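1st attempt posting a full record on here, be nice pls
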Amino acid sequence: MEQKTIWMRYLTFGLIISSILLFISCRKTHFLNSGEFVFVNKTNYNITYDQVNLQKFNVVANGITVFPTSFDGGKDLNPASYLSPLMGLSSGLVNIQFGANKCLLKQNQNSENSILNIKSFVSEKLGIGKYKFTYTFTDADYNRAVTCP
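the predicted structure (as tokens):
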């Protein structure tokens, strides 16, 4: 009877240790990746977006707007892992207005020189899991724009 009690104690102890080790080993490693998106306006015109939820990305003439972002990601991060912060806020198309009369119409993720295309940003690695992306509006963007409808 006494041997059965000792045996049960070791069995219980082993079960507890096994459960703890199983719980610890199954825990996922959490990688928080962060970055900042910088919108630089090198034109003499205020830049606005036609969608209400994009107002925080407006850039004054010769000004800068910075938008920090963070997301859960993997250990091996590269610039292609990021999406433009405007992607989740827009319907997939964005109209950009320079001043009151010129517009870049229907910019999408595949448009060349688009604020929705992460490849249009200049990326800079700031540290492990952290990048800085800069998009610069230039007179070339203004010259590509057409008269707003």
